[in-house]
Design brief:
Length: about 325
């Protein structure tokens, strides 16, 4: 059988398939439908320092090739997560990744301080949250804002910190470089893409906030390109996210340079989607004679070399 083990900055994952934040609860909710211990890891629901009730009105809407969501980070708050949810999440038997967001720099710092003392394996810093002091512009849009929040969290969090990048950034590659310079140990991308839908019968936007986040197969080619570009620009582990619905999709991201992948929208199509993707990836590797994920990474390096050669040829 192929070796599917992954090492993310010293955190050992049994395989590269991780349940994405906001699509898998805290893991325990899926335990009656699948053996969650077979996953490489689970990302918690997006956490904030204080509890949030989430957005009113429609929160999810199916669209061509994917879905729109405007949940609004409904969560119990960091302290309640540590006290009530983390033990059950830890008992799922897989790596625990806590996703942290915030509306101000102080909220990020205080939340990170609490999680620094908690039994988690990785902190995933969600910088797609709107900065309320900057008129609602997300921390992950401008490199200077991102660098500020990543640096501040790095100063108080001493474990493995992964920063989740927004595809809405001014320049995703420069954003990745800025986050690594600020102290990110790893990166995950992409978060959802800004999009919207209109209720034509009531003549108004489908969502109260007008704009929502698009995810699913429709965003995969965009996500794949961004992961590829970022992997070339930084020398830290990158986790690929975006429209991964099959084992072949996962293989594409790994060949683009990703060390692991997160499964999100697929979890809404069926609860055991992550395990199906894992089995398909394993079957692909067996049929292709690929013995380890490291061999797939070699293919990724070959792709990069081919691209450099193509660029040289076009310049001659």
């Amino acid at each position: 059988m192929p070796d599917l083990a992954v090492d993310i900055c010293g955190v050992k994952l049994k395989n590269p398939v991780i349940a994405a934040s906001g699509t898998f609860g805290f893991g325990e909710e899926f335990a009656e439908y699948m053996d969650v211990s077979k996953l490489g890891g689970i990302c918690s629901k997006g956490l904030t320092l204080h509890p949030r009730a989430g957005n009113p009105g429609v929160r999810m809407w199916e669209t061509s090739g994917g879905m729109l969501n405007s949940v609004g980070l409904q969560n119990p708050g960091v302290a309640a997560f540590i006290e009530k949810e983390l033990i059950a999440m830890r008992n799922c038997g897989t790596a625990v990744i806590a996703n942290l967001g915030g509306g101000t720099l102080d909220e990020y710092i205080e939340g990170a301080k609490l999680l620094d003392k908690a039994d988690i394996d990785i902190l995933e810093l969600n910088i797609s949250c709107p900065n309320v002091k900057q008129g609602g512009i997300a921390f992950g849009i401008k490199c200077t804002d991102a660098k500020e929040v990543v640096s501040a969290v790095r100063a108080v969090f001493h474990g493995v910190m992964m920063v989740k990048l927004s595809p809405n950034a001014e320049d995703i590659t420069q954003m990745a470089i800025a986050c690594v310079e600020a102290g990110a140990d790893a990166l995950s991308l992409i978060n959802t893409i800004k999009a919207m839908s209109i209720d034509v019968f009531n003549r108004r936007p489908m969502f109260r906030n007008t704009v929502a986040g698009l995810s699913g197969p429709a965003v995969k080619p965009i996500a794949l390109r961004m992961v590829y570009d970022v992997c070339k620009a930084v020398d830290v582990p990158v986790i690929g996210i975006g429209g991964i619905m099959t084992g072949m999709d996962a293989a594409e991201f790994i060949m683009a340079g990703a060390a692991a992948v997160q499964i999100g929208t697929a979890n809404f199509t069926r609860p055991d989607a992550s395990l199906i993707i894992l089995r398909e990836l394993e079957d692909f590797m067996i049929k292709q004679g690929i013995e380890s994920l490291g061999q797939i990474e070699i293919l990724a390096l070959q792709c990069k070399c081919n691209k450099k050669n193509d660029s040289r040829s076009q310049s001659l």
